[in-house]
């Protein structure tokens, strides 16, 4: 009887542990990793903060593209706009940035019933959250990029980009950086040689397109 009770108790504990692990907040390990990095190497004071999804995460040499700028890259792959809102204290406000550059929205397209308006509403919430803490610092939003692997989402992506651009036009110290149209061929098709083999993430050619589009909007020291 005691043996059965012990086995049942162990199974219950194991089930609870598994449940706890499975229900852990998304991307919490990435946030913990950033905090570990900060403890090992102090981030720059008042950085230009890059936040968003994998197009930033994989831009490992971003500082080489923008020498002389105090860039801090805190993109985490797979994230969508609600995740930036969820972790704003951890990936935005803890760094007291002098400027924020955002690339996010692509992963939102994977959700059910997501429209361009959905993405706009999420961006507006993020923008409002940032402005509640930093009323005047410059914010740059980089348009969602086209990619062969997400060609089926182009219509929604274009709609989202258009709506966000229109919203930003009315906001002070906020700019919309269009990379979308610079990643298309003359016939309107998506460039293919600027992507890695997954046809989603960019190679160096892709980031070379982004550099001159972003740099004019970065704050100089």
What does the secondary structure layout of this molecule look like, with pairings?
Blueprint: H1 2-22, H2 28-40, E1 48-52, H3 54-57, H4 62-65, E2 71-73, H5 81-86, H6 88-91, E3 99-103, H7 116-133, E4 139-142, H8 154-169, E5 174-177, H9 204-214
Helix pairs in contact: 7-8
CATH T-level topology: Rossmann fold
CATH class: Alpha Beta
Strand order of the largest sheet: 2-1-3-4-5
Order of helices and strands: HHEHHEHHEHEHEH
Shape: globular
Beta-strand share of residues: 5-15%
Distance between the termini: 73 Å
Uncertain stretches: 5-13, 15-22
Task: Give the number of DSSP strands.
Answer: 5
Number of helices: 9
The residue-averaged pLDDT reads 91
The Rg value, from CA coordinates, equals 20 Å
**Largest sheet geometry:** 5 strands, parallel
Helix-and-strand structural type: alpha/beta
Explain this structure.
- The chain has helices at residues 2-22, 28-40, 54-57, 62-65, 81-86, 88-91, 116-133, 154-169, 204-214, and strands spanning 48-52, 71-73, 99-103, 139-142, 174-177.
- The N and C termini lie far apart (73 Å).
- It contains 9 helices and 5 strands; from the N terminus they run H-H-E-H-H-E-H-H-E-H-E-H-E-H.
- Helix 7 packs parallel to helix 8 (154-169).
- Strands 2-1-3-4-5 form a 5-stranded parallel β-sheet.
- The chain has a single domain, classed as SGNH hydrolase (Rossmann fold, 3-Layer(aba) Sandwich).
- It is α/β, with parallel strands linked by helices.
- Strand 3, helix 7 and strand 4 (139-142) form a beta-alpha-beta unit.
